[in-house]
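Re: [help] complex structure
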Amino acid sequence: MKIYVLDAFHLSGVELAEKQAEVIRWDDPRAKNWHEDAAGLMVRGKKITADDMARAKKLRVISKQGVGIDNIDLEAAKARGIAVCRTPGVNSEAVAEMALSLGLSTVRRVTEFDRMTRGGSKVQRADFLGYESWQKTVGIVGMGNIGTLVARKWRGAFDANIIGYDPYVPASRWSELPHKRAASLEEMLPQVDILTLHLPLTPESRNMIDAARLALMKPTAIVVNTSRGGIVNEAALYQAISSGKLFGAGFDVFEVEPPTSDHPLMTLPTFVGTPHAAAGTVETQMRSSMLAASQLLEALAGGQPLGQVA
Ligand SMILES: O=C(O)[C@H](O)COP(=O)(O)O
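Output below.
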């Protein structure tokens, strides 16, 4: 039985899988021939299409490290009886911490100051004022594991006023959350100082934050995206920030990754960009890699792991 690990994983999970199966790692030249004999796959962001599945006759399980499964054609997997698992919960802390880091870096101009400081320029500090977060309003789209953790952190650290928008959370669960609930983005957006996105990329969420919705936000507000590129319209965001209708943005994810160095957003001083690194902590990579491997082995043995989605 062969398992192919197609993206770079923390070795903890790779070594766990190696105890029970032959494992071919991403940097092994044989990895490009995985379609021939893979029974199981471990992936992070690598796209697994319907065509891949049609070619991989022996494939039984795809184990994804992470929560966003937009890189895997779930319908094709279901149609072929290929199990798909993901690792919800284990990267929430890392992603939530990055969401706050991006928010704070943007409003306090941390990376902008860093560039000036490294460049040796004498900074006219009075011309570069930022915004505080204390008791500001944070709008959270997507109140799942990560969104609720982000809410707790902004509230706990900055006494922020939280407004959540998530039409998929039932009323019974909202009543357990100490946060205001917005019935629509149109209701939420004019109120927020920090908009932070924690939802999957789906046909419904693609282009959700477009020019019309950005126009509803305060000129002092920012957008933080650690979820998926494509949820915010990048051209509209560039227009809003460059014309002074929005203060800035902090993004870990982009429509096309990695973004090129001449991406328009990179020309904006109050834009902070990171390379899809929100889950990139030692603790999370160890936990996620181990969970992805153990779920793969469980599903290959005929079990139904908790993170199974197809
Ligand atoms: O889907 C997720 O949870 C994140 O995008 C994780 O992605 P990564 O494993 O590539 O860090």
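The chain has a mean pLDDT of 97.
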